[in-house]
Amino acid sequence: MPEANFVEQTLGNPYLLLFLLLGSGMALGKITIKGINLGTSGVLFLALAAGHFGYEVPGSTGTIGLLLFAYCVGVGAGNRFFSSLKREGVALLKLSVIVVLIGTATTFITAWVFGIPFDLAGGLFAGAMTSTPALAAATEALSSTGPGQSNLVVGYGIAYPFGVIAVVLFVQLLPRFLKVDLGSIQDETKDENDDIVRTALVEVKNPNLVGKSISGSGLESFESCTVSRVQRGSQLVPLSFEDTFSIGQKLYLVGRNSEMKIAIDYLGQECEEAVARDAENERRLLLVTSKNVVGRTLREIAPLREHGVIVTRIRRLDYEFAAGGNTRLENGDQITVVGPREKLQPFSDHVGHRPQSLGETDLISLSIGLALGILFGMIPFALPGSGAITLGLAGGPLLVGLILGHFGKVGRITGYIPRPTRLLLQEFGLALFLASAGIKGGANIVETLTTRGWTLLAAGALIVLIPLCVSYFVCRKFLKMNIFQTLGGTCGAMTSTPALGVISSKTESPVPVISYATAYPAALILMTIFAKLIVSTP
Predict the structure, then answer these.
(1) Separation of alpha carbons 522 and 392, rounded Å
(2) Which range among 122-126, 287-291, 297-301, 484-488 shows the weakest confidence by mean pLDDT?
(3) How many angstroms separate the CA atoms of 134 and 395, rounded?
(4) Residue 493 to residues 297, 467, 496, 521, 525: CA-CA distances in angstroms?
(5) pLDDT at residue 429 greater than cutoff 80
(6) Which of 19, 362, 384, 481 could bridge 485 with an S-S bond, Cβ 3.0-4.6 Å?
(7) pLDDT for 279-304, tens place per residue?
(8) Residues with Cβ within 8 Å of residue 451, at least 6 apart in sequence
(9) Closest to 166 in 3D by CA, of 529, 475, 502
(10) How many CA atoms lie within 13 A of 102 on its CB side?
């Protein structure tokens, strides 16, 4: 059987097997059923199967992946984690703390009731919370020579589907149970094919507006609708603070569909006429890093009055939304700014933008940051009532990443990594880690499932459902959040990006995204801490 021998020899090559697992696992993760997919965790499930049949990947794969993943997660979360501790996000931070504490308590109780070892319970906790950083931190806390790491990965693989599906169903079914149509709150005629942000050319026909200032017309009170350009002759040029309305004037609007319709009716009517505009020279993408603007609303910053420019769009985490007067800028936001060329550069300096920062990765800073993370992870420190502990290869890079992500630059070390590069490194590191973890966990997966079967399924479901139910009660009764804050905050506290995607498809409001972005970093950090605590329990 030469073909069988060739296949056996091929899969027996650890490097070849590794990249086969990465490619096929990512392909498996992209398969979407009713809006739900496995994502990068598809690598884990294939690796579990490969590990069951005795295949191996290179020994350092998981360690290198863990370092890259933890550091990039820290850099991505750092620019919001510390800043959100001292503003209106306190309520959402409280939600994250409560959800993670309830999830941890549920894990301990179910482990005690069902007699589940704490290494296995730690995997259930990480999977139920869909938190791979928690899995990484817990993996490092366990000895690689014992059965602990294997049990941990098995628990994660069992609970992860519950974690993904339960939160997605929760954010879909809760509004139905409450008889709330998320789309009708802002726009009963919402077109599902609309982009998050749309533009429109509008002809002014309202005689009541003639002679009034465009910047003070009332449009600035909209949550996400802005006039970015005004007609002068045959061209559209950036709006200035002194511009006034006139009949027949053409205005270029940027905003969400629901508010755009109201604004268009208020001003006149939308027109299809093509008007020239110098978008290349009069528009710029800027990265926000300066303390002059971080934490302040656009109304407080007054970019048009004070700087002669308009902020039209903001990209935060994986989402872009239209800017409004009440929009608060965060460190690391990418903002689209429209204005005259001579005004753009001073405003660029004001927000702390560095021209090279949006597209270039400083490999020296990346290497030194990782080295510092490893060093910090090796430093022992003592907690009251316990012996010396270390942050390890997960906690050290995560902490250094948080610090560099928050400050942007420490000395000559740059903490900023362009978003596409950071996401690539983060996902690649995660895939490497999951491939290694899955191989180790697959060795005894059948034995574990045969022995503990239904108890693991029940425990995983409880660890997901109890925090979800508690989060709604806390949000509405104690933190007094509205439905958008509740849903977005719950997604963040449960670190569920797929569920946030579901909400975003049903409403044009940016509130769920902002709430998610505020709650997510705190939940991410807390889960890594408590996952380590769970698996370290005697």
Answers:
(1) 19
(2) 287-291
(3) 10
(4) 24, 9, 8, 9, 11
(5) yes
(6) 481
(7) 666 788 887 877 788 778 888 888 87
(8) none
(9) 502
(10) 22
Element (H, E) at 468: helix 445-473
Contacts of residue 488, defined as CB under 8 A and 6 or more positions apart, other chains included, come to 500, 503, 511, 512, 513, 514, 515, 516, 519
Pairwise CA distance, residues 453 & 432, whole Å = 28
Q: Which long-range contacts (CB under 8 A, 24 or more apart) does 102-105 make?
A: 102/466, 102/467, 102/470, 103/128, 103/129, 103/463, 103/466, 103/467, 103/527, 103/530, 104/530, 104/533, 104/534
Amino acid at 332: G
Model pTM above 0.70: no
> Does 107 score more than 90 pLDDT?
yes
Q: Model confidence at 1, in pLDDT bands (50, 70, 90)? A: very low
Q: What are phi and psi of 330, to 5 degrees?
A: -120, 155
- Euclidean distance between CA atoms 446 and 174, whole angstroms: 36
Give the H/E segment covering residue 81. Answer: helix 61-81
pLDDT of residue 194: 39
For residue 229, the SS3 value is strand
How far apart CA 508 and CA 459 sit, in angstroms, is: 36
Residue found under tokens 């899995």 = 135
CB 415 within 8 A of CB 82: no
Cross-sheet strand order for the sheet of 198-204: 268-270, 198-204, 250-255, 225-232, 235-238, 276-277
At 411, the amino acid letter reads G
Residue 332 or residue 267, greater confidence:
267
